[in-house]
Amino acid sequence: MNPRPVSALPLEVDVRQAAALREQGALVLDVREPEEWVEVHIPGATLIPLGQLAARVEELPRDRTVVVVCRSGNRSQEGRDILRRAGFTRVTSLQGGVRAWAAAGLPTVSGP
Questions:
Q1: Separation of CA 98 from chain center
Q2: pLDDT averaged over consecutive 10-residue blocks of the chain (112 residues)?
Q3: Which residues are marked as active site?
Q4: Domain of 50: which CATH number?
């Protein structure tokens, strides 16, 4: 029986876990569309719309944990899976998306 690697992450994390990962240096990857991003996003997040992600995976660091987010949690699961298929091992998605993040009172910003 092989032990679970230290860097292994659950497929999804809740807002508390995501906030902790962000504070520990994780990259927050937002896979929504630019107009959604302008409305509200997590400070410091990187925007790569889901439809562009597969072609742009090399823009992302492989040496950092990546937390994929969207509006409610559906697109982020797909984004996470794209990254996993591309060989990323330290990747998870935010359950409930930016909506859950904001509802928990965590910081958000608006604008480009």
A1: 10
A2: 55 97 97 97 98 97 96 95 96 97 97 88
A3: 70
A4: 3.40.250.10
